[in-house]
Write a structure and sequence with these properties.
By secondary structure, this protein is of the alpha+beta class. The chain has 26 helices and 17 strands. The protein is 42% helix and 16% strand. 48% of the residues are buried. L-glutamine binds at residue 104.
Length: 637
């Protein structure tokens, strides 16, 4: 919908042009909101507040939807959509409220007046909301339950700065862009993916408001308080629903259809990303079956790497959608890479951002809103890693108790002989995690031990990457609240990979071309319901995402969907040794690596040279290193 920016300065003598700063901050988010710009400044004795918004018009295209929007003592800037705003509006009308626009923004203001902080529990949508209440001298910030919409904030030196993207902070004179070293550690820690998990950010004193949280600022005390209003783990703790499989399937389908239909609400054209996989086929099937007009669907394909375009085309033809397919050239994909540090303005190393930007560019020629079917794997147990985890934990727990310590001791002797290299170290770390799991007699603790270590580099190797060895990393997931080990893995992925990687990727990619991405499968009603379903309805020991797949089979013949899961995959590493080798030479040379003062350059350079010779098995390290270096060159020089 837009980008939001703002700041609160508690100093008595500000010493900079407030109007110029908020305008400059706002202008950095042109791509998020090209249709309208707005800002307001409130100067009080103890503080000054500036609120800004760059608008992408989706609902109520008139000037009545302009932000910041005022109502009595309340002023709001808001990024996102409240899909059930019409129902909330009807409820408020019965309570005596009066409205002057057809925008969901006005409904939020009235909801806040009526129910204060509890209003957020009524919202179905994606949102980052900032409300200034001049009567109570408080500012309240709300972020949606899944974290679809971003919210960054900086608090230091008597100033609180916020924005939808970090790039806006660079326009504020009091923002100090000092790298947070713990965040760099977290970025490199994950074996496959590179992101900085909430609440951390790349910079010191800079944070992401975690999903499902609200933040309150007492303007007279200059204090900040953060509270959680929703957590997926609360629903895993509840007793499983006593439903037959068919009843569960029927209720799941109703929730999915409601979530999809809500996300079609707009005053502009809407389409769907269709890959041909189960999740996007589900969303497309539910929507196309219930409407006479053809749904617009979009797919891109590649001549290199995995190509799902033929599957998507077959699905679109079967369902009768208005389908657009584009086969991208290698050159088109490679040309996206230099733009990544601008749109992903803290280090981000998911290479599938490239095809996501390309399919967003394709969709932007026809629609202003697009649905993306993410979260099916995390919510309905779809990843291959879950199968691996379940099978191996079963093997561990079938061992006689007397044998476990013996295997643990023998295994410890075995791994002590594994060489201390990056590639062998990954294997050593994984085996070590299984040994620790064997020694544990608690199934949920075993699950977290194994799952965490499957995807983490060992600390000994992370220490080799950096000059500074002192890192503080805290895990905050309480595994004791789970009844099933597999649910531990699902919750970890939901709270980390989905929120910090996938949803970030889609938000920045769609916003890069000024279209709004919507995520029906992260509707909190679906997530809450799925968490309470018996595990065997999602994973029965043979079929992943069982209930979701069975719903798809009501629309699409099973034989059409019977193919291996692929996803977007590009030959990034062969490119980096070929056409794009200049990026390695420019950004990963010893001289370039020395600039940040972070890296153990001799050791890192050795890994780069092994990569050039195609002798480094753990290649994702090179992509993460390149993405960090390109980010550093863009934002720190």
């Amino acid at each position: 919908m837009c980008g939001i920016t703002g700041f609160i300065d508690f100093s008595m003598n500000i010493g900079y042009n407030k109007k110029m700063v908020i305008k400059d901050m706002n202008n950095t988010l042109d791509h998020r909101g090209p249709d309208d710009k707005g800002y307001e400044i409130f100067e009080e004795d103890k503080f000054t507040i500036a609120l800004g918004q760059a608008r992408l018009s989706i609902i109520d295209l008139t000037s009545a939807g302009h932000q910041p929007m005022r109502y009595k003592n309340l002023t709001i800037v808001f990024n996102g959509e409240i899909y059930n705003y019409r129902e909330l509006k009807s409820e408020l009308l019965e309570l005596g409220h009066e409205f002057h626009t057809d925008s969901d923004t006005e409904v939020i203001l009235h909801c806040y007046e009526q129910w204060r902080e509890k209003a957020v529990n009524k919202f179905i949508g994606m949102f980052a909301i900032v409300i200034y209440d001049s009567a109570t001298n408080k500012v309240c910030v709300f972020r949606d339950r899944a974290g679809v919409k971003p919210f960054y904030y900086y608090y230091s030196d008597q100033v609180f700065i916020f924005a939808s993207e970090l790039k806006a902070f660079h326009k504020h004179p009091k923002f100090q862009k000092e790298i947070d070293k713990d965040s760099i550690y977290l970025f490199f820690k994950n074996v496959h993916h590179g992101y900085i998990p909430a609440p951390k950010s790349i910079f010191k004193n800079t944070f992401k408001l975690p999903p499902g949280h609200f933040l309150e600022i007492d303007l007279l005390k200059a204090s900040v308080n953060i509270e959680k209003y929703w957590d997926v783990t609360d629903f895993y703790k509840l007793p499983k629903l006593n439903l037959s499989y068919e009843d569960a399937k029927c209720q799941t389908k109703k929730l999915l259809l409601s979530a999809c239909e809500y996300r079609m609400i707009a005053d502009v054209p809407v389409g769907v990303f269709l890959s041909g996989g189960y999740d996007s086929t589900l969303v497309t099937s539910l929507l196309q079956t219930n409407r006479s007009e053809k749904l617009k669907t979009f797919t891109i394909g590649f001549n290199e790497g995995n190509n799902e375009a033929p599957f998507a085309k077959e699905t679109a033809k079967y369902l009768g959608t208005d389908h657009t397919e584009y086969i991208c050239t290698t050159k088109e994909a490679q040309e996206i890479i230099p733009t990544l540090p601008f749109f992903y303005d803290e280090p981000f190393a998911d290479s599938s951002a490239i095809p996501t930007i390309l399919v967003s560019q394709l969709a932007s020629k026809s629609v202003s809103v697009v649905l993306s079917a993410d979260a099916g794997d995390e919510v309905f147990s779809g990843y291959e890693s879950y199968k691996f985890l379940e099978r191996n934990l079963n093997k561990i727990n079938n061992l006689p108790k007397w044998l476990k310590p013996i295997i643990g001791d023998v295994g410890s002797c075995f791994i002590s002989g594994i060489p201390e290299t990056l590639d062998h170290g990954k294997m050593k770390h994984k085996i070590s995690s299984f040994i620790n799991a064997i020694r544990s007699f608690d199934k949920t603790a075993q699950s977290k031990i194994v799952f965490d270590n499957m995807y983490s580099l060992p600390g000994s190797f992370l220490e080799k990457i950096f000059i500074d060895k002192n890192f503080i990393v805290r895990e905050n997931l309480d595994v004791n609240s789970f009844k099933e080990p597999l649910e531990v893995a699902m919750a970890i992925d939901y709270k980390s990979y989905l929120q910090n990687d996938i949803l970030t990727k889609v938000d920045r990619a769609t916003m890069s071309v000024s279209i709004e991405g919507r995520e029906p499968l992260v509707d909190h009603r679906i997530i809450e319901f799925a968490a309470q379903l018996p595990l065997e309805y999602k994973w029965d020991g043979k079929t992943s995402k069982k209930i979701l797949k069975d719903i798809v089979h009501d629309y699409i013949p099973k034989e059409m969907m019977n193919r291996p899961k692929t996803g977007f995959s590009l030959p990034i590493y062969s490119w980096l040794r070929g056409d794009l080798s200049y990026l390695i030479d420019e950004y990963l040379s010893p001289k370039a690596l020395e600039q940040s003062g972070l890296f153990n350059v001799p050791w890192v350079s050795e890994q780069v040279n092994l990569f050039k010779l195609n002798k480094l098995h753990y290649q994702p390290f090179i992509w993460k290193l390149l993405m960090f270096q390109m980010w550093y060159n863009k934002w720190m020089k």
